[in-house]
């Protein structure tokens, strides 16, 4: 087991997840955009062995540079820029959030070949997009933080690449600590996927530190 650390993950002062949580650092956001460009370009390429070796060396040099700026997870920016599409996280599809109310949210997303299965969005990417929008809604409007308990996705039609898709989310019910959400993804008028999700509000002991949940496990 690796050494256990205490990570305080609960702070009642955290703002609504539709708003920024860390100071804007647009150079960092630009770095993540550049990384996305690399992901897409590498996915689309079949370089010669020489070109592949040269690019690998360049990328390892970038990794070396970034390791010299390493910070802990509470301090990192990646995934926390809730004010910009994609939250400055290279894995996240770039989701533009258009409308937000206390119980609904809508957004738009376009994915390229990096997120492709075969000529259409990969089936693992669709839940990633739903989780992004539904989790924010579940944890917004002053609702205490909850974790995703399930995310049941139905794939209704192929979701095309390089094409803007609309995503909707709605809080449909609340029972005690449980929040039920529903979402849908459309290509124009065509329903490509829908989802039912449950978020469970964290108990006090779950909000103190995440290491309790991970105790005794390798990580
Ligand atoms: C600079 C600052 C930047 C900060 C910026 C970062 C912010 C950061 C914030 C961190 C705060 C959270 C961070 C979230 C991050 C994820 O959402 S993680 C995403 C993946 N999800 C997980 O890993 C969750 C893993 N699972 C769990 O932790 C636990 O199972 C859960 C979901 C918390 C529930 O556990 P529990 O609280 O012990 O639940 P329990 O009391 O047994 O059940 C409560 C009710 O829910 C029902 N339930 C629970 N699970 C299920 C299920 N799967 N299906 C059906 N019903 C269920 C139970 O039946 C029960 O129902 P009732 O009997 O009350 O009717």
Brief write-up:
The chain has five helices and six strands; from the N terminus they run ααββαββββαα. The chain has 219 residues and is α+β, with helices and mostly antiparallel strands.
As for the number of domains, it is 1
Second-tier CATH architecture: Roll
- Average of the residue pLDDT scores: 88
| CATH classification, class level | Alpha Beta
| DSSP strand count | 6
State the helix count: 5
CATH superfamily: Hotdog Thioesterase
Q: Residue share in helices?
A: 25-40%
Q: Which percent band covers the strand fraction? A: 25-35%
Q: What is the CA-based Rg, rounded?
A: 19 Å
Small ligands present = Palmitoyl-CoA
What's the SSE pattern?
HHEEHEEEEHH
Largest sheet: 6 strands, antiparallel
Strand order of the largest sheet: 1-2-4-5-6-3
Detailed description of the structure:
With 219 residues, this protein is an alpha+beta fold. The protein has one domain (26-208): Roll (Thiol Ester Dehydrase, Chain A). 28% of the residues lie in helices and 25% in strands. It is built from 5 helices and 6 strands; from the N terminus they run H-H-E-E-H-E-E-E-E-H-H. It has helices at 26-44, 49-67, 125-138, 204-208, 211-214; strands spanning 95-100, 104-109, 146-155, 165-175, 178-187, 190-201. Strands 1-2-4-5-6-3 form a 6-stranded antiparallel β-sheet, covered by helices on one side. Strand 4 (165-175) and strand 5 (178-187) form a beta hairpin. The chain is globular and about 60 Å long. Bound molecules: Palmitoyl-CoA (PKZ). Residues 9, 14, 21-22, 80, 135, 145, 147-150, 176-178, 198, 200, 203, 206 line the site of Palmitoyl-CoA. It is found in: Cell projection, Ruffle membrane; Cytoplasm; Membrane. Residues 121-189 form the Thioesterase domain. Its EC number is 3.1.2.2. Keywords: Apoptosis, Cell membrane, Cell projection, Cytoplasm, Fatty acid metabolism, Hydrolase, Lipid metabolism, Membrane, Transit peptide. It is a peripheral membrane protein.
């Amino acid at each position: 087991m690796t050494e256990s650390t205490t990570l305080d993950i609960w702070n009642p002062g955290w703002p609504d997840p539709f708003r920024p949580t860390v100071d804007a650092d647009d150079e960092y956001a630009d770095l993540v955009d550049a990384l996305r460009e690399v992901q897409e370009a590498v996915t689309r390429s079949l370089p010669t062995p020489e070109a592949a070796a040269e690019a690998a060396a360049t990328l390892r040099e970038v990794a070396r540079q970034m390791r010299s700026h390493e910070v802990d997870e509470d301090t990192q920016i990646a995934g926390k820029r809730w004010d910009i599409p994609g939250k400055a996280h290279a894995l996240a599809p770039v989701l533009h959030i258009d409308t937000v109310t206390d119980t609904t949210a809508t957004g738009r997303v376009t994915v390229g070949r990096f997120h492709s299965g075969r000529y259409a969005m990969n089936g693992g990417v669709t839940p990633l997009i739903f989780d992004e929008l539904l989790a924010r809604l579940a944890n917004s409007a002053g609702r205490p933080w909850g974790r995703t308990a399930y995310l049941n996705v139905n794939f209704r039609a192929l979701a095309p690449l390089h094409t803007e898709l609309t995503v909707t989310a709605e809080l449909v019910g609340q029972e005690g600590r449980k929040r039920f959400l529903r979402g849908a993804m459309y290509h124009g008028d065509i329903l490509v996927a829908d989802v039912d999700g449950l978020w469970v509000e964290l108990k006090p002991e779950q909000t103190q530190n995440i290491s309790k949940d991970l105790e005794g496990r390798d990580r």
